[in-house]
Amino acid sequence: MNLCRLKNLKGISTVLAVGILWLLAGDAFGAETASATGVTGGYGPAPDLKPSDYPQVAGVNSRVTIWIVAQLHLWFAAFVLAVPIFVFIIEAIGMRTRDKRYDDMAYEFIKVSITAYSLTAIMGGLLLFCLVLFYPDLFRYMSVIFKDSMFYYALLFFAESAVLYIYYYGWHWLQGGFRKWVHLTLGLLLNAVGTTLMLLANAWLTFMMSPAGVDPAGVFSGDAWAAIHNFLWNPINIHRFIANIAYGGSIVGAYAAFKFLTASGAQEKAHYDWMGYNANFIAICALLPLPFAGYYLAAEIYAYSQQMGITLMGGLFAWLFIIQAVLIGTLFLSANYYLWCGMGRSDGAKRYYKYIKYIAIVLIGAFLVWFTPHTLVLTNEELKALGGPYHKYLGPLGIMPAKNTAVNLMILFTALSFMFYRRANKVATVGWVKAGNAIQVALFTTGILNIFFLGVYHGYFTNTVYKVAASIPQVLTTLIVIVASVVIDSFMYRRSQEAGPLHWGRVPPRSQYALFLLAVSFTWLMGLMGYIRSGIRQHWHILDIMRDNSPDAFTPTLGYAANVVSLATILFMAMVIFVFWLSQVSGSKTLPDGYWKE
Amino acid sequence: MRGNGYLVPFVAALVVSGALFLLMDMAVMNMQGLSLFFEP
Questions:
Q1: Residue B21 belongs to what domain range?
Q2: Which of A223, A241, A336, A345 is 20 to 30 A from A10, alpha carbon to alpha carbon?
Q3: B35 touches chain A (CB under 8 A)
Q4: Chain A contact present for B2, CB below 8 A
Q5: How many Cβ pairs within 8 Å bridge chains A and B?
Q6: What number is the average pLDDT over the span A262-281?
Q7: What is the pTM of this model?
Q8: B20 domain residue, yes or no
């Protein structure tokens, strides 16, 4: 019943959204704007707004409202765009291996995302209303430039809904042989449409950061592709695509944890334990390259606007990056902790227990380096006692080369944790096991030495150009070590024997809380980083083109921002728990004795 | 690393991978118009 209601609401909001977009994004607006500004036969400049141009509605704070609604929409959107990606992959694995467990798991993942999809649409509709109500001139200006893409976005939304419903409701109908291929193709189509939707929405937000296709006054050239393909579009596309997968993995991991903790039977526990493991695996796979994508995005922000780049990491928002480091460190620690707990499923894992403490030491050490600030917030007395703003020993750890070294080590050792986990229940049978292990140890040793060499030598004994340049071979070293080790491992354990039966469900409940921690940390992190990405425009709606003259055109304090994001995180997690609960009740049945006529 | 079963491949892999990483560092830094070792 609740599901039906949500789907109806989703339908209504979709129709409303399309209707409004149709009305607002039409050519009429272009003509209206042009005539209002005296420009004929083309587009007008970006409007120069006064505080009175921003409507006040029932005393509601416009900025906080838009902020929270947009953030909620984005979280749900990230989730529902990511889930079909790995559902498609899991379904394909199921088809190839003919192991029905994969098919059942893929179905359960998409089932969770269906309700979340409705909430995404509701939040999207709400966001649209809020933009029209609170920031009508900004929305009108954006609608003129992106009228075509907004219109196609609305159409694609219909396509997305149609394909998703066929994909989900046709899951059991389209089984076996050719039908299964049709179903898989629908999954591919669903991902293509979903990704296109994301790319379009990314174009609108990146236009606000790095406008293109307009002159310095904001007069649109009419080249819609130039506006879409702006400087920061692709860096955001790459970063969001990877981050969405990691995020989607973490949320379905939390779902599996929820189901595991509420499961009554051993078989049910085993199923959700396996599901949680797969979700965590997806999250880790996407988490490993994510810092590199983030680094690329930050570098491109610097390249586009040094002022924006300095505000980002060297100025106002620098301290939020310390919080970011804490949260990313939490992600790595919880993902690793979950893997270590998961080794309890195998009796053969005992062989690797002795190494875990060393991995933990490296991870914690790297974590501490990562969140060491460069400049400390100090009182005058503390400043005098310290002899300056930088700590004598810890200060050097505050700069990027130290953090790059730390993050590369964290990624390498997380991969190592995963390799131990993967080996835990296997006994290699090939004759070159000793040589294979020795080569892997050598590879890790030289890789780590190279990362240190690049980080320490180029970080502290050269200039800034070298510091930045050396980060690329550092990244490549990490990737080479991981890929080469995984390849060696896969050959070494090709015809391996099992150390014993794998006991799915034999994990402590605390491992499931690590999955919750992963989901909450991801959510909070995305909220904080989203605030930074948006906040670096400072007093501009559209950087250097359209100034924000609303009463809220100031950058809030970091504490205030963290409170708003935390509130939004709590709201989102409450809604996610609601989604989980819905999936729980949808499988429950009550038999009301004597209620119905026989 | 007890015994030759480990030691020989370890040392060989250490030398080869070390050299390859160094070559990669040089190539990547050169592609960015820089040398591996700092030239002020």
A1: 1-35
A2: A241
A3: no
A4: no
A5: 70
A6: 92
A7: 0.84
A8: yes
